Amino acid sequence: MFARLRSDIQCILDRDPAARSTWEVITCYPGLHAVWLHRPAHWCWGHGFKWLGRFISHLARWFTGIEIHPGAKIGERVFFDHAMGVVVGETAEIGDGCTIYQGVTLGGTSLYKGAKRHPTLGRDVVVSAGAKVLGGFAVGDGAKIGSNAVVIKPVPAGATAVGIPARIIPSKEGQSADVTEPQQARKFTAYGITQEDDPLSQAMRGLIDNASSQEHQIALLWQAIEKLSNCVKTGDCVPDDAALKEQFEAGKFNDLVGK
Q1: HSE, side-chain direction, 13 A CA sphere, residue 113
Q2: Which secondary structure element, helix H or strand E, spans residue 4, and what is its range?
Q3: CATH number for the domain formed by residue range(s) 2-197
């Protein structure tokens, strides 16, 4: 038990540069208090003391501003950073090492009792401020949810979801490649955002590059036509530099901007 408590504190010291000491984390971090209060609430819920579990979670919400249903499952080293206004639904599952910022909702879209209505977050997922993850689907290990994104479909491991509704940017290194490194070697992305996480800007850059390539090919075609007028007799009329097949990748841009 004490090892787990130390792990809860250490994960905050590792991920928040504003945390200066263990005592500061213990006394001044409502996200830590919410996790610690959730554990007895979850125990009560799982052992049939439903009202007591709900009452403990209600007190935790009043003290911390973080609402976690006692039925939700939370792994180890989960950090609710700032986290005012976070709502975690009954059937939600949060994997080890996740980071969740303020205003996040892990919500459900179904009214059927007993069904899996809320999302499952894999290991080391970052859910940024204001994001809404709605539905009983999975968010893969190492995925990132951008600020104010509305996610209504599964997110592959290592991918980034941004926008309303969220568009998926796959991991550069392939499926779950972002989480194959050791924990200490992996770079933590605060608020889940990098400079390359906008699919529309990626699509626009791709279109600009493609237009530039077309301009180059048109210039080569004019050179080829000029050469053709001078080499009818020799038969050596195919320029080496001209592209002989289509280069435009329409499917790739459609995936970026969403279908």
Answers
A1: 0
A2: helix 2-15
A3: 2.160.10.10
